[in-house]
Amino acid sequence: MTLPPVRRQTVVGGDPATAYDLFVRDIGTWWPVRSFGCFGAGSSVRLDGERFVETGHDGQTATWGTLTAAEPPRRVAFTWHPGRDEAEACDVTVTFVPVGDATLVTLEHVGWEVYPDPTAARTRHLDGWGTVLDRYADAAPTGGDGGPLWFVLQHTAGPATGPEGVFASPDFPKHVQFLRGLHAGGTLVAAGPLPDEVGAGMTVVRVPDVEAARRTVRAAQTEDGAVLAGLLDVRVRPWAVVMSA
Fold first, then answer.
1. CA angle at residue 137 from 123 to 5, to 5 degrees?
2. Residues ≥6 apart with Cβ < 8 Å to 5
3. Range 132-152 average pLDDT
4. How far is CA 181 from the centre of its chain?
5. Which own/partner pairs from 54-61 qualify as long-range (CB within 8 Å, at least 24 positions apart)?
6. How far, in Å, CA of 171 to CA of 151, rounded?
7. Nearest Cα to 17, choosing from 88, 92, 76, 82?
8. pTM
9. What is the pLDDT of residues 210-234, one digit of tens each?
10. Domains and CATH numbers, the chain
């Protein structure tokens, strides 16, 4: 069985070119090597030509992956095998999309079948990439004062959806609870199902600044109980609003 990708998203200040350079060319300035490296504290990571290479404090090296596509400032893709043989590589793609004076960064990691226990590897990376993107966002510019930022949270039926469907599942009230939290926080504009796609829905949110956008995007992935249960899959998309009531 092919497992779905791990998708993690965050919002950073600055334009896509700035966000791209920070992730790709300046990865060594923010990557948490102590927790997510091959050699622990004291090591460093850099882009060396087309390879991400970690160097330990004693000079030993490990290749984490190799670029397969570099399309600055919108997209970068690379193989991924830290601490593993290149023949056991997965694939990672990161995209950078403008939203107001900020950038929505989306990371997708696929290819879990190369691991002895694909499900465990996917679960481990789901948490790990969330932590890594938090560090990345901490290192990014805080953003400007370009006004409110709008996002669409697109929800579709997740891998844990049973024969009863999304809306009859005992986990669906957790999604309603999450939406109520957005409403209480003043960021919810509208939410509801999409009648032309079974189990799908859309939520529109508006936030005042980059920091609020980052919190909201993270919450959509880590605080919605229906998403955590696998009942729903969420994808955050930027919305360029040109007219509103």
1. 30
2. 108, 109, 110
3. 89
4. 21
5. 54/82
6. 24
7. 76
8. 0.95
9. 999 999 999 999 999 999 999 999 9
10. 6-139 (3.30.530.20), 149-239 (3.30.70.1060)
